[in-house]
Amino acid sequence: MTSSPGAVPPLFAPPRVTAARDGDAVLLRSAEPLGEYPVSVVHSVREQARLIPDQPMIAERDGRNWRRITYAAAVAAADAIGQGLLDRGLGPAKPLLILSGNSVDHLLVTLGAMTAGVPVAPVSVA
Fold first, then answer.
1. Do 124 and 101 touch, CB atoms closer than 8 A?
2. What are the DSSP calls for 53-113, one per residue?
3. Cα dist. 100→38, 72, 105 in Å?
4. Over the stretch 35-82, which tens digit does the pLDDT of each residue have?
């Protein structure tokens, strides 16, 4: 493949899709087969905790310092929070609404709910 001097390469590969009409709708399907993927976000986090337990998963400013949570610590917190939610009667039929800004704690509560099978709905304070 040749390119002219100063030409900018494309940012993304061209999409490979098929299109079919269904009445007024156009159905787009990827021509790429779906690769392997984790069963859930919780499974993905647990796998990372197994592979790189001491690596930071998330960090946020805490005044002048950073609060860092490793993958192993996130899994431990999610397990504890999930058990606490179950102990309080939450479950598949009793969801959790989180009214919070983005934060480490927001993530940990969300992971805890997902770990325990509690439906979770984050709502932005904005």
1. yes
2. TTSEEEEEEETTEEEEEEHHHHHHHHHHHHHHHHHTT-BTTB-EEEE--S-HHHHHHHHHH
3. 27, 24, 9
4. 999 999 999 999 999 999 999 999 999 899 999 999 999 999 999 999
* C-alpha distances in Å from residue 98, one per residue of 80, 121, 123: 17, 6, 6
Structure tokens that stand for 39 in this block: 């069963």
98-124 exposure pattern, b = at least 16 Cβ within 10 A, e = fewer: eeeeeebbebbbbbbbbbbebebeeee
Which of 94, 95, 96, 118 shows the shortest CA–CA distance to 42?
A: 118
Put simply, whether the predicted model's pTM sits higher than 0.85 gets the answer no
Q: How many CB atoms lie within 10 A of CB 70?
A: 17
Distance, CA of 114 to CA of 106 (rounded, Å): 12
More confident residue, 119 or 3: 119
